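Anyone opening a protein record will find just a pair of labelled lines. With that in mind, the following record should read easily:
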Amino acid sequence: MDFTGVEWRKSSFSNGNSDGEGCIEVGFMADGNIAIRDSTKPAQRPHVFTPYEWECFVAGVHNGEFDHPQD
């Protein structure tokens, strides 16, 4: 897969992160697929998802399906 020209986006919630941990970046590819990567390791191969897979994931996030369970 060619990631040349992909514009990576990082959440505004990661600004000012002082604990040294990275954040996930999302890149929308020319072929319509969506890639995600660790912002601290941009040379590593990103995970790539189809538009349908991404749509299902985002819907789950909006629905709270991936929230950390409360103790």
Q: What stands out?
A: The helical segments are 51-62. The chain has a mean pLDDT of 88. The beta strands are 8-10, 24-28, 34-38, 47-49.
